[in-house]
Design brief:
By secondary structure, this protein is of the alpha+beta class. The protein is about 35% helix and about 35% strand. The chain has one domain: 3-Layer(aba) Sandwich (Aminopeptidase), CATH 3.40.630.
């Protein structure tokens, strides 16, 4: 089972169905904040939807198409990070969110580094992508801090709550990762 120590008290753990209530609780507590940037968060989302997401994630893992982890701090889930994989073309996309009271402490940057190491070193992917809303400066700063290169902007790419968001795409290649490591 995938697990990656990130920092003092912080660990990434593969999401399991028994985590659904805890994950839903942190989503529900931060629903208004998450709805600003995350198209998948809506007012009708339930703990059952969270359980179904985790089960789908485990199915994708079994097919080597993805990985979904909870970010845990002192045994409490505080966010999530995932990797969607395109095996044929050997690339993946990292997606993430973190409860606001844990932001600004380096937790997500370090969590992404853990996922990057897994993607490049274990899975032997050639390319990783991070997408963020143009106005989501915190998410964009993570990609930039990690050395990802901005490729472009997809205009009105996703619907989030009450408006379309433009998404900026960043990428990092395996050869660039090797130079950083």
């Amino acid at each position: 089972m995938f697990s990656c120590p990130v920092d003092q008290g912080v660990v990434l753990k593969l999401l399991q169905p028994h985590h659904s209530e805890a994950l839903f609780a942190v989503i529900d507590q931060n629903r208004q904040h998450l709805q600003t940037w995350m198209p998948w968060v809506d007012n009708s989302q339930s703990s059952e939807d969270t359980r179904k997401f985790i089960e789908l994630s485990l199915q994708l893992l079994a097919e080597a198409k993805g990985l979904a982890c909870g970010i845990w701090f002192d045994d409490t889930v505080i966010g999530s990070i995932g990797l969607t994989i395109d095996k044929m073309n050997r690339w993946g996309e990292i997606g993430y969110w973190l409860s606001p009271n844990h932001q600004g402490k380096g937790v997500m940057t370090k969590s992404c580094r853990c996922m990057m190491a897994y993607a490049f070193e274990e899975l032997k992917l050639n390319r990783l992508v991070i997408q963020a809303a143009v106005e989501n400066h915190r998410s964009r700063a993570i990609a930039e801090r990690l050395g990802f290169v901005q490729e472009g902007i997809a205009r009105q790419s996703v619907w989030a709550r009450d408006r379309y968001l433009d998404l900026v795409t960043y990428s990092l290649l395996a050869e660039e990762w090797k130079q950083m490591s």
